[in-house]
Here is the input.
Amino acid sequence: LVSASVQAKESPEIVELTPKKISAENSVPEVFYNEKNKDLYQLRGGDELVIRVYGYPEISSPDNGTTPYVIRLDGKFYMPLIGEIDALNRTVPDICQEIETRYKKYLRNPKVDINVMKISKIHVCVLGQVEKQGFYEFERAPRLLEAISSAWGFVGKSSKKNVFVIRAGEQ
Here is the structure.
């Protein structure tokens, strides 16, 4: 990937954009949910789950396609008998194991299976010297370059060295 960067010089400087230059050096890439890496995906608020507790349809998701188990924005969801499950930033196998352990108090040999039916969208607000300021939705946390590109890039001679990233909960 090659990009032309216009600065105070007469001719554009050609810069090779590598993933290391685009993303922060110490960041861990977010795993996008699919069949190949579903055991690595970290759950987040808004994800919809189909949960099967084999032999116990009364506490499993219905077979009619509805998904009563939705992770709330605080990262939790409720299951009968065992109460709140904290799922934020945890993997499906981890949650399965916790549910099985907690149901052992009430059920004989519980076996749990979880499928993520719908992943929530990430909302990003892009403001400042970009062509189209506003809110943008992403399937996964975008890199800075992706967020700026969604806003149609920088305007004119805007300062590309003074970019601020503010994450929820940070000041």
Notes: The chain is about 15% helix and 25% strand. The longest strand covers residues 112-118.
